[in-house]
């Protein structure tokens, strides 16, 4: 089977931090067609199927909508003076696919909106009503059997480890991963684009070149004294990477990848340059498991010399396990390294580098054709190398979908979030979120 791995260079931030170093390639979210056919999971984890979509001018559309109530026991995400509220949650989404053999195009979009009528923002807290979103497209062009050219573009607005993709009713779409964490809530808006070219060579080898750019903006954070603006941390990151691989056996390839990133912000003092070299093993399917694992070395330096150079190991993994056609486990862990600017106070900026370790685990189980359940959890920690500050967050949740009539399901979701910042008590909080409603899937 051919490799279906793809490069996803992505940037995201939570709290008062900027994007981390470019990550190496990760396995795609859903199994390839070959893996799905071998496991017999079409329509489960292997992507949408034609009989479940709407045909239109050669495209297949797969829409869905969740509508219901949401209860939040800490709408302002504060450590004290917690305020609970009940609101409305809407989550429309769709995917669309076009495949004519040589060209394959996929478009997706989802919006997760939470509204709390009667609960407004204050001088020190932003309004609890918020909207997260994911949208994008990808295009694969295979002019010959040994050449693949991929284009991708997307937009995301999110906060947290799972962002808009958390929940039983959430669609399976590509989503950026948070690479830095902090106690306070912080929404980031990202616009990104990538292009990659992969060429299969003789003797079971392949080469892949990738280039991309990401523009990030942040919502201002409400502070205890005055709002904190993060406009100086907004900017564009450029990335590039070259991967070479060898198919050790038809199902497994060994690879080496070298990449660099160049970040340019509104305030040039934050500009950084970095590189990463990793090696590892990747597979589309070994028995009931697929994914990749890698390790290597990474470094970041200040373009202006405002703060020192730092280096550390790079490692990570993304694994998918299918013990049965109805049960899927997904696990990921990675350590990223990047330059960031931490706000010590509303008017003080302290340049600093950080390292972030992040782990996620998901389990999705179809008890019956009409009943599915899920459990997900994640942990992230950011350590500021030139500061004693440490930020960490825990997220856990469960949920279920029960289809009681045709394509309409009762949906229940529960999510717990715990964040801490060791030297900023006002940035830590606990939050319980409960959603209940109905999901419609065509």
Structure description:
With 442 residues, the protein is mostly beta strands. The chain has one domain: Porin (Beta Barrel), CATH 2.40.160. The chain has one helix and 19 strands. It has an 18-stranded antiparallel barrel. The longest helix is centred in the N-terminal third of the chain and has 7 residues, at 33-39. The radius of gyration is 22 Å and the shape is globular. The chain starts with 32 loop residues before the first helix and ends with a strand. The model is unreliable at 1-29, 42-47, 171-178, 224-229 and 341-348 (pLDDT under 50).
Mean pLDDT across every amino acid position: 79
Helicity, as a percent range? under 10%
The first-level CATH class name? Mainly Beta
Cα Rg:
22 Å
- Unreliable segments (pLDDT under 50, ≥5 consecutive)? 1-29, 42-47, 171-178, 224-229, 341-348
Which helices and strands, and how do they pair?
Elements: H1 33-39, E1 54-56, E2 59-72, E3 85-99, E4 103-115, E5 130-144, E6 147-158, E7 188-200, E8 205-218, E9 235-249, E10 252-265, E11 272-286, E12 289-302, E13 310-324, E14 327-345, E15 348-368, E16 371-384, E17 390-405, E18 408-421, E19 429-441
